[in-house]
Amino acid sequence: MSVTDPIADMITRMRNSARIKRREVQMPSSKLKIELAKIFKDEGYIKNYKVLDDKKQGTLTLTLKYSESNQSVITGLRRVSRPGCRIYCTHDRVPKVLDGLGVAMISTSKGIMTGKKCEELGLGGEVLCTIW
User: Fold this and answer.
1) Taking a C-beta distance cutoff of 8 angstroms, is the pair 76, 85 a contact?
2) How is 41-81 classified by DSSP, letter by letter?
3) What's the burial of 41, exposed, middle or buried (CB within 10 Å: 0-12/13-18/19+)?
4) Which one of 2, 10, 29, 64 is most buried, counting C-beta atoms within 10 A?
5) How far apart are CA 12 and CA 79, in angstroms?
């Protein structure tokens, strides 16, 4: 079945899995989702990710991260730009998520990166999602 918004599908799967305290979440793979997973891992929101090649699309498996008290590290996850309403930012108007406690994912001409990295490099782009 075709998904209209694959990023929203990824975010929803992660949010639902974190709510029911599931350790792993699987989804169809794509280059965009793998790049987002790399940033989630670098920022400390997931433990690990792996891509299983099945001669078709492939499967992306994310291992979610929990605290010692079994609370999810991911408190919130939100899709900002949607297929029906694209949201863009310039290098001087990069959104701050919870005054710097969260991370905004931005698709730029140099690839997908965090809001902080965009400010450092002086880049703007489409605001994909926010995580905190």
Assistant:
1) no
2) HHHTSEEEEEEE--SSS-EEEEEE-B-TTS-BS---EEE-S
3) middle
4) 10
5) 9
Which residue bears the tokens 């639902």?
16
**Which residues have a Cβ under 8 Å from the Cβ of 50 and sit 6 or more positions away?**
60, 61
For the chain, give the mean pLDDT: 94
pTM of the model: 0.91
Query: Which pairing describes strands 77-79 and 125-131: parallel, antiparallel, or unpaired?
Result: antiparallel
**Cα radius of gyration (the chain):** 15
Residue 8's H or E segment, with its range, is helix 6-19
Share of the chain above pLDDT 90, in %: 92
d(CA 86, CA 71): 33
φ/ψ (deg, to 5) at 113: -150, 170
